[in-house]
Amino acid sequence: MSAPSIKVSQPIDWTGIAFAVILTLVIVFPLLVVGTWAFTNVWRFPSVIPQEFGLKFWYQTLARADVWSSITMSLTLATTVTVLSAIICLPAAYAFARLDFPGRDILFFSFLAGHAFPKFGLLVAIAGIFLQLNLIGTFWGVVLIQLVGTLLFMIWIPVAAFQAVDRRMEEAARDVGASPLRVFWSITLPQAGPTIAAALLLSFVGTFYETEGAWLIGAPQVRTLPVLMISFINNQPVIQYGAVLSVLLWVPSFIALLFARRVVNSGSFAKGFGA
Amino acid sequence: MSVLTIKDVTKLFPGGTKAVDSFSLEVADGELVCLLGPSGSGKSTLLRMVGGFEQPTSGLITIDGQDITHMPPEKRPTGMVFQSHALWTHMDVFKNLAFGLKLRRLPADEIKRRVEAVLELVGLGGYGSRRVTQLSGGQQQRVALARSLVLEPKILLLDEPFASLDQHLRERLREEVRDIQQRVGITTLFVTHGQDEALSMADRIVVMRDGRTEQIDRPDVVYRDPQTPFVAGFIGTMNLIEGTVSNGTFTRASFSHPLAVADGPATLAIRPEALDLVAAEPGAAKVHRVTDYGTHGLLDLNLPDGTRVKAMVDHPGQFKNGQGVNLAPRAVAAYRDNKQIFRSEA
Ligand SMILES: Nc1ncnc2c1ncn2[C@@H]1O[C@H](COP(=O)(O)OP(=O)(O)OP(=O)(O)O)[C@@H](O)[C@H]1O
Ligand SMILES: [Mg+2]
Fold first, then answer.
1. Homologous superfamily of A65-272
2. Which of A175, A187, A190 has its CB closest to that of B73?
3. N- to C-terminal Cα distance for chain A?
């Protein structure tokens, strides 16, 4: 007597498994290698694992003045760009979302169109202009180029966020005596808050990690952490410097990711896009 | 003492919709006036012009004699309650109510006192620290009302505040709001497209159609003596029978009724409850359907040409489908060219 089996044996999904394995290898393996290098003191060919683990190169890397100055540079730069971008873009986004003025659609489109060009070509053209303006190699030159890079999502995302705010809420605030400016500050902005926070975060992280513009405009005087990392990887015989910086750079993006997850999970991010 | 005057107000939207058309109304101190009309008749537009959210194309709006026609909403002594409560979800109940008071720079203890008092008034004492999203639909609408009342506006404006609530809750809130309105004695303009809401709450009803006034009267008058066939058909159930008058007799198919007006076409209006039936074969009409409501019955009748007539009867058991009856109206009104030309009381 055989009881009918409850478990229906499923055919093994070989394609799925293959994909999973390949993805793991492609994504995780390089991370693993970099992570291992960062904590390696000695690792000579042909050994598969390092001969000696340790924090030697962390001490060495963190003892370098150029590392610290580039960390400070990156943080200052990302903060400055994010704040400036917010000051410029948030009111503009509100205008796009709420006001009706001549040329509105064309202007909005032009913000987006700038990002349709091949980026490096655009950068070289801008660099040419900056050269004449003596902005090459200056902090504010880099700020300016990064600012351009943030315009897309610092306008697009907040526009969606502002459009999602219930107009009746704004009217109710006018009704109890708030001026239009006060309504923006006390009602619209907080309502659109989580989504705008996500845009700010994107702006910060995007600026922090941007290399092409920072290198082209800033080099050699202005050196951000990612630019320094690239030059380590290209010019240093010791692999560990680059590896340590990579791990260091991983920290802020991980924090940003955790934060972004909370925002996205709250649903208002999706709501900002009309979902 | 606050009187709202709307004089010859017209609103033309870009695109050409005339939402409100030379509308005039005076709301007396402490009065509750209902704007009643079908969808798109311009009720909300009118209310929003009083609140300052739309600009009239022409006309004048005054409160206690002061011209507010072009004043921005934040300067007006009006308080508006929206259909979708429009509470600020990022603030708790207390902050929602305190926002307007803070803008007026009242001291903190005064704000606290007034917010708590108004929460008591709407039956939500102790709910101050609740988040707006943690309230039921009825509670949210009460908070929205409180948010307006706490500022002691001269004119209270309500735009279908109960439309999103279920029938039962709607009836209860209707009574509560009427009660509060009378206790506070605030001049109120109330938009609805529910006739029972208007009939049960209003001191006066404005029946609107296509941005114009059809009739302004007390609820019982609007019900008993509608001035136009539109009002007659819109408020309550009404039989509107098109026919012709000749030699003092109104005729439609096999139905005729004495009517002392000049010859010509006319619309005869008869309430179902003012229509007596007399069994007769073949009779002027045939019984199509009998519905027994327990306390009374409703009969659907057909004239030979298919015209439907409704009649209310005390004993529906006496009637059967297909039976012939003669119609004996106790009270009628007659309309021609959109105007009342005849009316008889029961
Ligand atoms: N912002 C606007 N732009 C153009 N037309 C509008 C606007 N607002 C309202 N209308 C038009 O004005 C007319 C009156 O609209 P209104 O909202 O005042 O009607 P209502 O009586 O409140 O209807 P409802 O009972 O459905 O709320 C409608 O034809 C509507 O389409
Ligand atoms: Mg409306």
1. MetI-like (1.10.3720.10)
2. A175
3. 55
